[in-house]
Amino acid sequence: MHKSDSMAKIKILPEQLINKIAAGEVVERPASIVKELIENSIDAGADQILITIKNGGKDFISILDNGSGMDEQNARLAIERHATSKIYAEEDLEQIQTLGFRGEALASIASVSHLELLTCHDEQEGATSLSIKGGCLEKISKTGFPKGTKITIQNLFFNTPARLKFMKTTSTEFRHIQETVVHQALARPHIQFRLTHNQQLVFSFSKGQSLEQRIYQLFGEPFQDTLTAAHHQETYLHYEGFISLPTGSKSSKRWQYLFVNDRFVKCPAVNHAVYDAYRTLLMKNQHPAFFLKIFLDPSEIDVNVHPAKTEIRFRNSQLIHTILVDQLNKTLMGASHQRHFGSQLPSSVSQKKVSVFPVQRPLLQEQLEIPIEQGAFSDTQKIFSLNSIDPPAVHKVLPQPKKTGKPPVEHKGTELDPVAKEIKSFKSSHQSEENQKSLVLGQLNHQYIVVEKQEGLALIDQHAASECILLETYQKAIYAGNISVKSFSVPILLELSPQNAILLEQYLQSFNKMGFQIEPFGKTTYSIHAIPSMLSENKCKKAILSIVDELMLFRKNRRPEEVHKNIQEKVACCSAIQAGDKLCIEELEKLVIQLERSRLAGISPHGKPVLIEVSYQELEKRFKRSG
Known about the structure:
By secondary structure, the protein is an alpha+beta fold.
């Protein structure tokens, strides 16, 4: 029987037991030991770190470095709890620039293993050798050893059987060690790392490499071909690294590496910013790969959140989120444009209005006339708040085209055709030397545009291309607060189910901010007084119902900016050229030119690629006869 609470006595735990409890926080598994010891080596200034493992670290771990080493006095102190050379006063916690700082690692590791420490600070004075078993110093001696430190761990958890039972298989434990070494190798590509397991060399990274070289060595050429460099520098922070192109997204989050001040960390705020930067560029169930190194003043970070120091907090996470979303999105758009069209987006483009033609015919009557400015989203704050803005309800009411009652005319692209004339004028005034690299050959299955390029053949999805162009134009108009709308003298009535009526009522304000004017008409009926001018009258009901249906599916915790984004995408989709629409050659050329000028040219809002390319090399390979 247990003693009652009133009989229990409070006692100070013995130091040996305290060390074992601390080891439960610091030493979760063999990989935790490898991480702590590598970090000590890096803090000691080593540029060569050799790791030797046996049986997944359960039997043997050795870390050898060429760092500064220690003399005998410091070596003795290093195995004591809370003994560290990294901080001396409370204020030092605000300016941590080392990987370790708590002074717990060696004491905690030594308390649950057989540890041997061999270290030398001055070769003329000789090296110090310490042997610790279960936290107790058993032997200390002098020996010969080059400058640096070697720490050997054997019989891990020999005195804590319960912890030993929770160890996984050799392959599992070694996989965690391997991932730990990869983290450190990516964080510091200038350092040599060599990992050996059961006397077999796993990998060896030479010193003095760049991050790009290290990624190439780890993941190979096919992986690297899908990445683009990302870098930005300003007073508050700067970052550098590589992110995947939208077409190089992955089916898992496995290839996401974040480093803050060269420390591998997990930070949901940064991950959220990266995903926001991709916006509609990712296909469904796809994830970006990224290798990002962020640098900012240590006082702006709290690294003392987790015992393993893998989680951090920012003092101003909102500002960091804003900067990352803005700058990474610019990088993605520029890189996608370079990849698809062979040139970067121009830094500035003529302010002349560009006609973005939706499906409705005739084109000249229903074109949306809004300036396309490539620098419109250059400001950091503008980018961050694009989908959460509350623009003033400044609507430009355009007169409706007169109805002639005549059937639509099929455009042949002849000299007498006004549409063809307008397109040719557009082409001559906007098609630069870079645009001449793309030669439109025709339309395939009334769905794809066939384009000849310098490096091969491209197929462009006409609906996805039109959708991207219209979405960008719509978003710019929303931000500027001058959404072009068309109003109806006789409102269009929309009948809804009771559920959908309640939902539309809930989000009426969001619809009205996006250029709609919708009002309750009684019971479950609503009257539509105005719609964005790019949206045709006969498709406005479809667009509204589609938006409401999606809100019904995902209505839990929907933020206003998510609702706005959903409305924008549906309006662009319903307004765009559709698969099956027959276009003349001039219309195809115009669409390609507009796509080349668009910043959303990679992935459609539905997450599908806009363009598929086949290089001449691939064509030659397919036509090459065997034998």
